[in-house]
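the two lines:
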Amino acid sequence: MARSPARTTIRLADGRELIYFDGRSGIDRSSADLRHIPPAAVHSELRFDPIFDEWVIVAGHRQSRTHLPPGDECPLCPSQPGRPTEIPAADYEVVVFENRFPSLTHPGRSEVICFAADHDAAFADLSLQRVRLILDALVDRTGSLSTIDGVEQVFPFENRGEAIGVTLHHPHGQIYAYPFVTPRTLRMIDVARAHREATGRDLFEDVLSAEKQAATRIVADGEHWTAFVPKAARWPIELHLYPHRAVPDLAALDGDELDELAMLQLDLHGRLARLFPDPMPYIAAWHQAPVRADRDLLRLHLRLFSTQRGPDKLKFLAGSESAMGVFINDLVPEETARRLRDA
Amino acid sequence: MARSPARTTIRLADGRELIYFDGRSGIDRSSADLRHIPPAAVHSELRFDPIFDEWVIVAGHRQSRTHLPPGDECPLCPSQPGRPTEIPAADYEVVVFENRFPSLTHPGRSEVICFAADHDAAFADLSLQRVRLILDALVDRTGSLSTIDGVEQVFPFENRGEAIGVTLHHPHGQIYAYPFVTPRTLRMIDVARAHREATGRDLFEDVLSAEKQAATRIVADGEHWTAFVPKAARWPIELHLYPHRAVPDLAALDGDELDELAMLQLDLHGRLARLFPDPMPYIAAWHQAPVRADRDLLRLHLRLFSTQRGPDKLKFLAGSESAMGVFINDLVPEETARRLRDA
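prediction for all of em together
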């Protein structure tokens, strides 16, 4: 597609940064935030768990964050006369801003990304152009956040649905810039390193090849990407989307890869939306390599998963999953792949 | 306490084993299971996830398991004339049997443990004698299951509350005998081994000492046990109960330790029950050492945790927790400990 997206940065009344991403340049983004809001007195604390050798975030201030407000009080809708929101403009395409109730504070950072001004839109309803613009924004944020001193990993994700605890309905995702490499990423890297030392090969390439060869769990693919239900899926619904090229993060993708990614993401979200009569709660998680280390060991990929195991049944993480890390999946991955292919 | 508990084993109609645990011997446990139920055609499959180097259980047959039956169809109540249940006796104290919808099949095993015949009882309501009898049963099962060829770890636990997906209300727990050492246990052992190699000391002893010294997170203690909210608590409500002696599992506890454990468990469950107006969903998980290896590196302990972060608010595992393994706790551990001490 011929594209020339534009990027405009402003500051909100309390000093937080907000960035508009627009499909074309020349749109007036000068609206000011006229609210009187004091700088948020927030501080999240990193605590070290010596038993698991892992960091835990304690964010006491988040207990009072905005929780399922009525639609006409949504802080992610555009501002209207007499009703200022987090976004000063009267309309927008894609906008990113620092979270007012951040899980991570300096040197980490928590950002919100709004996908559309329409409060009732879902990701699956977005236009191809819009999804491509969201990817532009994620590429931008991955690159920018990676340059912050002390940031070690950038994690773009979307939580969708009250059933998984979403506190705002407006279509949006989040971007966490962690001041450490996360436990699951460290684990992947350890496994990939051991695999490379033992075989000389790339772990993600081998998994992708095995899935292509088995073929029974492939859901969709293109020239640059393949989507499959993993053989050992943990969640009732789980899709992995791998690039064919070994890239560490979104910022390393080329234009053709981003164009096809936008199409495939829309395709996959559409399949999820059609699987059950009601909209499915899900988590869409971008696994990216650490900012400063082992960038050749972890391949960028998207994991799209849901706790929904039937039209009216949710999977909960109980003792085995939460305490022991052993997932029990009541759905057979090959069957889930077939249903997603048919959806 | 002067005690002489009794143990009686029978077979259910489909061949599954059931064991009655009674506070005294001489109770007639000869009631037969008169149902016509065929041997369950169940098979759970272990699948290997090469990215995380972990096992996942795929148990397709569980999709159709009994889900929140009305109270008068509860399969865990004692049998009544004309209404046979999983337990043939007309009354019972504590009973353990092989799960009809097991997550683990040979060489693993899934057992159900019923805490009381009373459908509406909660753990916090049980008598001290009953809790002590439940511990007898868990000691017995840990010992017996550890002798099965191929079993590598025994995990007794209780999931409580619909909010965390419990499908049967009757007061009960479960015992999983895994045919592998679980990921979180392997992780603990790796960390404990590195700590021993670096310092010559026991990791759990050092954590317990640090919590005793800090004192701010201790909730209850005795001669043989200490309960505390861990410094880096992942869950809004989280309690760890450590024995003062380095023991690998429940079967290694002596009588005095078991007696005090029963008192402290009741005390802790009572505090949890009094914290919020409605009964709190929770998971109670016994971390035990592997059956065959590293028994000197992992100390037995109980983790009692809840997703409840307020009277009407639940914590959900979203993107950060589910995809990255980074927990964000909105409650400050020292404050949670204070509230539990005051409860």
